[in-house]
């Protein structure tokens, strides 16, 4: 199967079974919503798909490549956790250079809403500004599948609209799985 294919995911914490035989798939061009209450296992599932969290059992494949660890997924899948992944005391311009190719970085630098942040350090940004930068780094990155864990948390309404437009535009070449508990 072409695309991201996830099957038979099981995860427990202690005696609590969190996920049981979960199946989800995503193709390039799709934006899949994963909705549920807090504590339902949405974030856990994304971490397992990405390879950041071990599962009791899982089968994760992108095209013909099996994903077991973070190393396996690094150029195929990217993950936006709920907490910021930006290194502190580093300029946004440098962070973009770390995560993006020079062509992708140049495209990001030209976005009107990114320009004001380029020479600020990540620790000088608000939570919503960090979130916006993180999301657009992933949207412009080379991974074909992007997992966004509650991406709209902490964003101003204007930034939410920018992110929605960015996801729609990027979905031409990527597949997305997005979690949310506000539904």
From TrEMBL:
UniProt KW keywords: ATP-binding, Nucleotide-binding
Record domain ABC transporter: where: 20-153
The keyword Glycoprotein belongs to this UniProt entry's keyword annotation: no
Record's keyword annotation contains Acetylation: no
Pfam families tied to this protein: ABC_tran (PF00005)
Protein name: ABC-type lipopolysaccharide export system, ATPase component
InterPro entries, A to Z: ABC_transporter-like_ATP-bd (IPR003439), P-loop_NTPase (IPR027417)
Phylogenetic placement of the source organism: Bacteria, Pseudomonadati, Bacteroidota, Sphingobacteriia, Sphingobacteriales
Species this chain originates from: Pedobacter insulae
Transmembrane segments: none
GO molecular function: ATP binding; ATP hydrolysis activity
